[in-house]
């Protein structure tokens, strides 16, 4: 498109994804208006029609049945650029420079609003427009005409621009209890599952990701079904409630009390207009699916109706009931046509043959019966298996049947031969449901193990597993002594977080066998759930309460991760607040399901006292501020027996007072800081304030619509903080009893909330698996901390920038409507530990960010497909051809990988360095770096990404020659959107090469620079470090490589010019083959400048210029030249400007993104100059620990193996460096980034 036409759209014809539009739109020709328009957001950029337009973003959803565009540009209308002579536009009075503000009664924010309105109209149809002309508003009317043939070539492709308001970060919690039902969508692209906990989960089949969850607090869900077009789904509950929802938005369309008992089955007609439901109330009801209005009732069954289906022509309805009878009904009249006598037992499923000539039924005894539909004659009857079954499901062609028994196996049978075809094993506990995909090629199963699995029906191969990645948060609190916080989750893990830097400090699972008081490495045996955790007043200990049959009270040392002390207290508890330290940390108070309050002596290690008086569970306990009194609160859900608060004297055990007023169970109670007042909250949704001395209720605070799970006073005693099952945290003013503000953001029940020591922040945690930190003054969320079940983690701020463990981002998603994106697709721009830390430290980050993640997703990534997936097994080189297609966000950088290593890309980091050439290294501290970044943000606002790439059209097709390696080969392609801010899903193809293996070679290039032309920055140990590493690698590699195949080169000091280093790389590139190994070690100075990391060479004379620096771009090109698929890059660099949270965070961001792009392993350590000069035992500290790991060290080999690999050496080096640096007072944690495939370095002798 020429510059002059940028941002314009011709409203002549729009072929808007014709497969998504009804064909009837084209029957009478295409509608035509005849005006050229431009969005005002583009026109207003500089007032000229030639200005650069804001892009019309698009999400192309294959599941959308219609295009419903909304504006993603700045609202303001559409400017008329030109009007075609004698067109409908001219006839209705449209003029050049008119501003269209309303199209057909709706706002016109984007050209697509007008284009799609015309595309969905017919020739001759009226069109109504409101326009602004010279400051006056006019209403114009006209009729669209049939498009003239001459106009057709002018049409431009327009992408749908609908951006759902329902966009959110999704934590993969999955089914939080056993899976009760699971089905495929008609297209097979989605799964819908239900859990016992009144929740539904929607899953994306391609990515294995959870898209969203739907909660239903009105009824437990027993059955559900998709509408044929996947626009809606229906749920049926235990109490007979029917609810129709919009699948895209989750909005409820209608709710009716459909039956008087369980809804057992729901079926849509093929056109989606009719809904039939069966119930335990012995009826079948037919409804209008659009309105929920009942059309007729089919009655006559003597028992619960348990099965339901429609005949292929939809003229008949087939039902099954608990008494074993199968009934055929006339759908039009509701009359009963015929009754088929099945075998004794609960009939679980019924089906028609595809031609409708036969019907089938299967019952709980696995008796299969086949009848002739028209005559009722029994054609076949047999028993497949003698055992009771929980599910019987027929395939779409009715020739196969699935049965689920009481074990962990389900079976596939041939209906007509009674032969078992396959059995499926893989679930660890009882299987609860199975179903077929519509085409019968796949089977989905769900079980009490909370897992969903997809199987290939033909082979029985398990293809995918869908499960939650994170668990409910039961407790969260700040340390009273420092910036740490803790969270406790359902997976029995205790996680410690650094709330200043936004990192996880540690994650430990509770692993204690109560019976033997013995700590073990396995936790599978443990039946307890750790629900409570609190810091001691000095922050040195954490008190845990494990609840269940193996319950206990544990004092845990967060520094060592070990248990200090242990008290058995096995009775099950309900609350999260039932254990506390005394103010002097000498005693512990606990409550429990045995109705007792217990005092424990920590020094003596035993129970000291117990207070009896409660008649129900004790859910919350605490000491008074002076430690003389104890407070307990209790009650049991749905029990009115004892919803009281009791005050006890600790010394005597005497009950002092009883506070009554709550009408249901109390889950939290706490003293005010002066001990004069008590606050409490519970199941009755109220917060109550009590006078301790008088024993009276002072006031009741109302506002929560869910159970109040946690209450606490502020330090000055003037405010109360509460958390609730209504997903909210609220701050209250005690004097007035009024709510000060609500903290909104949690998507599920909030279990805990408390203040930071300075009370400027709040921490909360809940069933959405997130721990969140909020700013008290503004009420805004600062960050959410998410720990995953596998130990990975993410800390993300509302703007979308995040810090994470290396694989943590793989478990977090961004959902927009029902389109799901992995957070890792935003890695190159949004992985910014420095910005996360800055936000948590209260800094203004507005000038540091170019866009938010919500803005980025408006330009979706392209789609990638291989043109061929078959490669010759004997060829030394193969040709991989692929196609990249624009989905509305444009096409940016395209990357090609071979076995995980980058082999081709056209993207490069923007050279935005504005730093003065004379700037000294020592002055490039964090303040200078951020000041420079802020100035660049102001000067270059339009640049959204640090990456630039070659421009491409709507379709980009090309091929790449790949050098095959013997054995397995995987070729992968990924592409970015046009702004290089969002990456597509990686698409991969694999093949096995039968080429004969070749002897591998190892190439080592070590660079060490102590001496620079600018002598003030000279170092002390860099040259020695490089030499020692080279020699150690040569010696240890001899176990895997023949000595003559090991090639090592050292470039040091005066020889380490940029020219010489690049020249050495170029020479090696001519020798190294894909099967060889390559290690590049650098010790010297490194510097961060905006979008890139730079290595300083010996040439540095005190000026920042290209002649003396090797940039990230050049490192990428060096790696691409080197064909080795096994590369390790090690940077032991000194940052002379100092290393603080900004420098370390930015260093992490730049190096990690570099490693991900190249698909390699990078070890990197940034330290300040003084640390580098001091050294450690003759080397730099980082090099010292590397040498220790390489020197026949069994600790560097993982899992008891004698093989030291790239990943295991990195893990050893990281831990050892952090430990030693902490001991000597120079805290240093190296970056160990493993985006490449692991491979061995040496064998421990």
Approximately how much helix is present in the residues?
A: 10-25%
Distance between the termini: 65 Å
Low-confidence stretches: 1-28, 41-75, 150-164, 513-526, 912-919, 932-943
The CATH architecture term of the domain at 473-791 is 7 Propeller
Largest sheet: 8 strands, mixed
Strand-pairing-aware structural class: mainly beta
Strand runs, count: 91
CATH topology type of the domain at 473-791? Methylamine Dehydrogenase, Chain H
| Helix count, DSSP H or I runs of 4 or more residues | 14
Instruction: Report the CATH superfamily of the domain at 473-791.
Output: YVTN repeat-like/Quinoprotein amine dehydrogenase
Strand content: 35-45%
The residue-averaged pLDDT reads 84
Q: What CATH first level of the domain at 473-791 would be assigned?
A: Mainly Beta
Q: What does the overall shape look like?
A: globular
């Amino acid at each position: 498109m020429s510059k002059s036409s940028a941002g314009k759209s011709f409203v002549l014809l729009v072929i808007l994804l014709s497969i998504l539009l009804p064909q009837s739109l084209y029957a009478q020709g295409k509608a035509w208006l005849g005006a050229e328009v431009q969005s005002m957001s583009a026109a207003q950029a500089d007032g000229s029609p030639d200005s650069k337009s804001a892009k019309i973003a698009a999400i192309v959803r294959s599941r959308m049945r219609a295009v419903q565009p909304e504006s993603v540009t700045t609202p303001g209308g559409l400017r008329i650029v030109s009007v075609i002579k004698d067109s409908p536009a001219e006839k209705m009075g449209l003029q050049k420079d008119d501003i269209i503000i309303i199209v057909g009664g709706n706002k016109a924010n984007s050209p697509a609003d007008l284009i799609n309105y015309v595309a969905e109209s017919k020739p001759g149809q009226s069109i109504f427009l409101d326009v602004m002309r010279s400051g006056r508003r006019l209403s114009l009317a006209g009729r669209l005409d049939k498009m003239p043939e001459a106009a057709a070539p002018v049409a431009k492709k327009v992408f749908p621009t609908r951006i759902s308001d329902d966009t959110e970060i999704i934590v993969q919690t999955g089914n939080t209890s056993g899976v009760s039902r699971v089905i495929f969508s008609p297209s097979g692209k989605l799964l819908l599952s239900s859990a016992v906990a009144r929740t539904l989960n929607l899953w994306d089949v391609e990515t294995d990701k959870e898209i969203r969850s739907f909660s239903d607090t009105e009824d437990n869900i027993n059955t559900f079904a998709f509408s044929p077009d996947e626009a809606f789904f229906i749920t049926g509950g235990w109490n007979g409630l029917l609810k129709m929802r919009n699948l895209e938005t989750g909005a409820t369309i209608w709710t009716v009390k459909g039956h008087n008992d369980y809804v057992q089955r729901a079926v849509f007609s093929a056109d989606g207009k009719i809904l039939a439901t069966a119930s335990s109330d012995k009826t079948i009801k037919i409804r209008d699916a659009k309105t929920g209005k009942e059309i007729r009732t089919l009655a006559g069954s003597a028992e619960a109706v348990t099965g339901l289906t429609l005949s292929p022509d939809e003229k008949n309805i087939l039902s099954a009931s608990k008494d074993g009878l199968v009934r055929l009904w006339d759908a039009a009249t509701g009359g009963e046509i015929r009754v088929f006598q099945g075998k004794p037992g609960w009939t679980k499923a019924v089906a028609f043959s595809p031609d409708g000539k036969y019907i089938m039924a299967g019952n709980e005894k696995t008796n299969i019966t086949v009848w002739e539909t028209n005559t009722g004659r029994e054609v076949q009857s047999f028993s497949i298996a003698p055992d009771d079954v929980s599910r019987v499901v027929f395939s779409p062609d009715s020739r196969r049947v699935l049965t689920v028994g009481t074990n962990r196996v389900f079976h596939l049978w041939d209906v007509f031969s009674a032969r078992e075809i396959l059995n499926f094993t893989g679930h660890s506990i009882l299987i609860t449901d199975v179903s077929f995909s519509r085409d019968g090629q796949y089977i989905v199963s769900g079980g009490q193990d909370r897992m969903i699995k997809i199987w290939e029906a033909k082979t029985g191969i398990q293809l995918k597993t869908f499960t939650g990645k994170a668990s409910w948060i039961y407790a969260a609190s700040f340390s009273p002594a420092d910036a740490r916080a803790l969270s406790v989750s359902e997976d029995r893990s205790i996680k410690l977080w650094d709330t200043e830097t936004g990192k996880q400090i540690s994650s430990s699972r509770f692993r204690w066998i109560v019976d033997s008081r013995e700590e073990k490495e396995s936790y599978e045996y443990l039946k307890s759930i750790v629900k409570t955790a609190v810091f001691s007043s000095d922050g040195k200990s954490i008190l845990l309460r494990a609840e269940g049959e193996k319950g206990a009270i544990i004092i845990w040392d967060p520094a060592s991760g070990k248990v200090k002390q242990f008290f058995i207290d096995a009775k099950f508890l309900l609350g999260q607040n039932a254990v506390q330290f005394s103010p002097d940390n000498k005693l512990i108070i606990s409550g429990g399901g045995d109705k007792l309050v217990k005092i424990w002596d920590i020094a003596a290690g035993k129970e000291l006292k117990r207070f009896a008086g409660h008649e129900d569970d004790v859910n919350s306990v605490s000491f008074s501020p002076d430690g003389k009194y104890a407070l307990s609160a209790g009650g049991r859900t749905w029990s009115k027996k004892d919803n009281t608060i009791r005050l006890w004297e600790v010394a005597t055990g005497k009950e002092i007072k009883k506070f009554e007023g709550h009408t249901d169970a109390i889950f939290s109670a706490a003293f005010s800081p002066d001990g004069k007042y008590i606050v409490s909250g519970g199941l009755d949704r109220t917060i109550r304030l009590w006078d301790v001395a008088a024993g009276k209720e002072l006031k009741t605070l109302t506002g929560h619509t869910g159970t109040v799970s946690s209450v606490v006073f502020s330090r000055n005693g003037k405010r109360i903080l509460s958390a609730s099952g209504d997903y909210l945290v609220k701050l209250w003013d005690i004097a007035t009893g009024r709510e000060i503000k609500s903290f909104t953001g949690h998507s599920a029940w909030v279990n805990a909330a408390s203040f930071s020591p300075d009370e400027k922040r709040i921490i909360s945690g809940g069933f959405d698996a997130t721990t969140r930190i909020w700013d008290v003054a503004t009420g805004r969320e600062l960050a959410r901390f998410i720990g995953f079940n596998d130990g990975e983690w993410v800390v993300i701020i509302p703007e979308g920038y995040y810090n994470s463990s290396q694989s943590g981002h793989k478990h977090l998603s961004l959902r927009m409507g029902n389109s799901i994106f992995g957070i890792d697709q935003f890695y190159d721009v949004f992985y910014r530990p420095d910005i996360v830390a800055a936000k948590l430290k209260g800094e203004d980050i507005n000038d540091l960010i170019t866009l938010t993640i919500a803005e980025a997703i408006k330009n979706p990534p392209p789609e990638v497909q291989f043109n061929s997936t078959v490669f010759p097994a004997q060829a030394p080189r193969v040709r991989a051809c692929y196609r990249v297609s624009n989905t509305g966000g444009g096409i940016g950088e395209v990357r090609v990988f071979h076995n995980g290593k980058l082999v081709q890309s056209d993207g490069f980091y923007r050279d935005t360095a504005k730093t003065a050439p004379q700037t000294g290294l020592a002055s490039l501290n964090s303040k200078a770096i951020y000041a420079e970044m802020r100035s660049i943000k102001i000067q270059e606002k339009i640049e959204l990404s640090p990456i630039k790439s070659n421009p491409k059209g709507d379709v980009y097709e090309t091929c790449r020659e790949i050098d095959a390696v013997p054995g397995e080969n995987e070729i992968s392609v990924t592409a970015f959107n046009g702004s290089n801010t969002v990456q597509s899903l990686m698409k991969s193809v694999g093949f096995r090469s039968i080429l004969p293996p070749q002897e591998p070679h190892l190439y080592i290039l070590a660079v060490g620079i102590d001496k620079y032309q600018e002598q003030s920055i000279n170092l002390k140990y860099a040259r020695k470090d490089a030499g020692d590493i080279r020699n150690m690698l040569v010696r240890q590699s001899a176990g895997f490589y023949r000595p003559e195949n090991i090639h090592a080169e050292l470039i040091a000091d005066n020889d380490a010019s940029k020219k010489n280093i690049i020249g050495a790389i170029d020479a090696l590139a001519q020798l190294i083959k894909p099967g060889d190994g390559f290690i590049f070690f650098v010790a010297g100075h490194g510097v961060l400048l905006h979008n890139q990391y730079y290595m300083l060479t010996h040439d540095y004379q005190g000026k920042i210029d290209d002649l003396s620096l090797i940039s990230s771009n050049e490192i990428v090109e060096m790696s691409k030249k080197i064909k080795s698929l096994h590369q390790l890059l090690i940077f032991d660099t000194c940052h002379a400007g100092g290393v603080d949270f900004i420098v370390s965070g930015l260093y992490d961001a730049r190096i990690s993104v570099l490693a991900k792009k190249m698909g390699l392993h990078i070890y990197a350590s940034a330290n300040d100059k003084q640390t580098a000069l001091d050294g450690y035992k003759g080397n730099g500290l980082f090099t010292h620990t590397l040498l220790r790991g390489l020197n026949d060290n069994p600790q560097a080999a993982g899992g008891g193996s004698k093989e030291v690999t790239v990943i295991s050496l990195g893990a050893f080096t990281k831990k050892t460096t952090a430990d030693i640096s902490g001991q000597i007072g120079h805290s240093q944690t190296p970056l160990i980034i493993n985006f490449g495939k692991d491979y061995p370095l040496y064998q421990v002798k």
